[in-house]
Amino acid sequence: GKWDAALQVFRNGVKRNPSSPQLLAGLGHVAARNGHLAEAEQALRQLARLRPRDAAAQLNLGGVLAATGRHRDAEAAFRAACRLEPKNVAAQYNLARCLSDQGATKDAEDGYRAVLELAPHSFEASFNLGVLLFRRGQYEEAEQISQRLLQANPGRWEPRLQLGRVWQAQGRSSAARAAFREVLERFPGHPQAQLSLSLSLLGDRDIAPAEELIVAAESSNKLRREELTAARAMLLAAKGQTAEAITRLSGVLDSGVGAVSHYAQVADWLAELRRRDEAVEVLKAGAARFSGAMKLRAMLLINQRHICDWTDAAAASAVIDYLREAPS
To answer: pLDDT by residue (tens digit) across 136-163?
Structure first.
């Protein structure tokens, strides 16, 4: 097609003139577009050497590196772009996303907020900030962001689905299911809505329809492996296979993409099996990763039995703060 022809044109051009910034930039873009990421990286690295003060070169190089899964190298390129152009919205946004992909949630949060200072109406930055806050257990602000985005973008599925997820985490399952079903009415067969609705149904041990939804979501081949693994773990637990569920969901935590709710769920299952010491270690890991997560701090203190000593001001404060936000 035309992209293959364009790729050959740029290859020939770079062979004749390997120091042309325009040709190197074109080759990097078209090679990446055609899936030739190694060739794209080579061209963009050469461009960055020729133009060390070109923020766009670093930004495009970072994009290619991120696409290959080399997030630390991508982070370095995005940071270089930000240093060269501190008000470059694309550079700041891609840096925040890269940090989030590496599990650096607090730095990513700061990054998205920096983007919103530069571009207050950025849907992507607002939405991803809301998702990040949701993963960290900061449900109130996550809900506010989703509500604002839904009001401004009523035809988009993302804020409606995210709002349902927040409501589910807050224990408002009826409202959550209504949101998931509305997404499915507007976008039939939407895999993320199917998966979210299935998890809500599993909360009430409504196993058969939940399993059907999980199977349908899996067949789309559009979901991350970690999302499906977490759903399968919840299904196993609902069927009484708690030990296997712990193994599955612990794998999600080990991959670095788990949310506060995942840490809490694994700890709950471990405590249910009287494996309290292991539950404490899971909660410690979660609390270390999500330093502002009151739920994990409260659960940790309860499992460590510090809660019985109300002279422990930290214990009392953590549990009271959590109970203020926790679902009834």
So the answer is: 889 999 999 999 999 999 999 999 999 9
